[in-house]
Known about the structure:
By secondary structure, the chain is mostly helical. 53% of the residues lie in helices and 2% in strands. It is built from 16 helices and 2 strands.
Amino acid sequence: xxxxxxxxxxxxxxxxxxxxxxxxxxxxxxxxxxxxxxxxxxxxxxxxxxxxxxxxxxxxxxxxxxxxxxxxxxxxxxxxxxxxxxxxxxxxxxxxxxxxxxxxxxxxxxxxxxxxxxxxxxxxxxxxxxxxxxxxxxxxxxxxxxxxxxxxxxxxxxxxxxxxxxxxxxxxxxxxxxxxxxxxxxxxxxxxxxxxxxxxxxxxxxxxxxxxxxxxxxxxxxxxxxxxxxxxxxxxxxxxxxxxxxxxxxxxxxxxxxxxxxxxxxxxxxxxxxxxxxxxxxxxxxxxxxxxxxxxxxxxxxxxxxxxxxxxxxxxxxxxx
Length: 321
C-alpha cells in the first residue's frame, strides 16, 4: 500500500531498501520511459546490453531474469554444494571421475557449471519468445535473418561457443570434451545435432556479431566471479564416460536448484554488483532448504544380499553395483 504514495514523490525520493520495493519502483520508472519513449543519449555498454538478454521469463513481457544472472545463480549453487557444510559426497565423486583433488573443485568447477546456459545468449534462443523478442527489438537488438522456422536449441549454441569462441584456457582434450557433452546434455537428452550443422544455421540466419561479443562478455564475467583459482595443471579424466555422466548429473542438480523461483526471482533491473550478493545468499538458502546441509546417516545395510534377500544370488551386474 506504500507504493502509490512513494510514486507520488516522483524524483524527490530514492528507495534504498528493501530490494523488492526498490525493484518495484525501478520497474515503474522503466515502463514509464518506454511509454513516453524517453531515451538517454548515453551509449549503452556491452554489460548493460548483456543484462537485457533473458534467461527466465516472468508474468509480463517486461519481467524477466537475465541469462547472466541465472548462470551466476547456478554457479553459486555449485559453490555451496562443493563446500562445507554440504556433504563431501559431491567432492569425492567428482574428484574421482575428473581425476582431480576433491578439495580444489570449489575453486574452478562452479565456473564450468555456470557456463551451461551460455547458448541462451544467442539469436535463436532470445527470439523464441515473441514478447521478449519484441522488447529486445525495441531496445535496439538485431536478429539477422532469423525466422520462426530457424529453431536451434540453446544447448547446441553452447557447444559451438565452447568449441569455436571460448578463449584458449589450456584445458586438456578429455576435460573439454566432457564439458562440451555436459552443455549439450544438461536438459536430460544429449545433443545429437552435429556442430557443423549448427554453424551452418547460425551462418544462415546471419547472427549479428554483437551476440558473439555478448557471449564473450558473459564468459569473462563468470570467469571473474567463479574461477577463483586456475589449477596449476588442469585435471584430465581417465574415463571420459564416467566424467560426462557425473558432471551432467551435478549440473542438472545445480540448474534445478538455481531455477527455484522461491529463491531466485526475476531481477531485470538489478545492478550486476548488487546481484552478486543476492545470488550468493539465495543459493545458500536454496541448498539449505533442499536439505543438502544436513548430515546424512543410515543404518541400512549396503550388501546386496541384505538389501534384496529375495533376489539372491545377485547377478554379476547387481553385485558390481
